[in-house]
């Protein structure tokens, strides 16, 4: 999958993200969480946003580097984006995320997208760390993060997902760890 690359979208390309957010299969990882988010559907994990809301979001995210970064994930052999990566500064830590469109999951894109995100974060934008909180039952995601150089920390969050307790732990990579790889 060395043909994976990141590209910051234009405002005209927001419809991809808007479609993914409404797709129950792509957003299934989000289902069941209690999130105080307008137009979030707890049963499906989907989020519905108007065109105007997407433009407002875009203006608050794109071209806000180094504290915020958002890009689509592409495979050079596929004309449309296959997912997205992002990070943002939250309480002194750069929290990050990655979403792969349902039909492209399990094909190695997450790993390569994480490597590309690390390059942007550490080489281009000179940030000091990337972090994500990942539920322990997402074994594939955890393996992918660890393969990309992330480590578990002691930080954990507990919550209810569809009435069952869920434990999520922080995965972290620092610029120093990245440079040693």
Question: What's a concise summary of this model?
Answer:
The protein is of the alpha+beta class and 181 residues long. The chain has 5 helices and 7 strands. The longest helix has 16 residues, at 109-124.
Describe this structure in words.
- With 181 residues, this protein is α+β, with helices and mostly antiparallel strands.
- It has one domain (4-180): Gcn5-related N-acetyltransferase (GNAT) (Aminopeptidase, 3-Layer(aba) Sandwich), CATH 3.40.630.30.
- It is built from five helices and seven strands, in the order βααβββαβαββα.
- The chain has helices spanning 14-22, 51-61, 109-124, 139-147, 175-180; strands at residues 4-7, 68-75, 83-90, 93-100, 129-135, 151-161, 164-174.
- The strands form two sheets. Strands 1-2-3-4 form a four-stranded antiparallel β-sheet, with helices on one face. A three-stranded antiparallel β-sheet has the order 5-7-6.
- The longest helix has 16 residues, at 109-124.
- The two termini are 19 Å apart.
- 24% of the residues are buried.
């Amino acid at each position: 999958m060395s043909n994976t690359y990141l590209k910051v979208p234009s405002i005209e390309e927001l419809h991809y993200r808007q479609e993914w957010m409404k797709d129950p299969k792509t957003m299934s990882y989000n289902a069941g969480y209690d999130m105080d988010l307008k137009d979030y559907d707890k049963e499906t994990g989907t989020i519905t946003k108007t065109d105007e809301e997407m433009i407002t979001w875009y203006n608050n995210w794109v071209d806000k580097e180094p504290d915020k970064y958002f890009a689509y994930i592409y495979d050079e052999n596929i004309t449309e984006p296959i997912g997205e990566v992002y990070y943002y500064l939250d309480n002194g830590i750069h929290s990050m995320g990655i979403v792969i469109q349902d039909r492209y999951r399990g094909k190695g894109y997450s790993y390569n997208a994480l490597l590309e995100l690390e390059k942007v974060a550490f080489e281009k934008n000179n940030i000091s760390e990337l972090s994500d909180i990942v539920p322990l039952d997402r074994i594939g995601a955890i393996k992918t993060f660890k393969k990309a150089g992330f480590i578990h920390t002691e930080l954990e969050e507990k919550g209810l997902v569809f009435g069952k307790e869920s434990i999520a732990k922080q995965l972290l990579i620092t610029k120093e760890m990245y440079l040693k790889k």
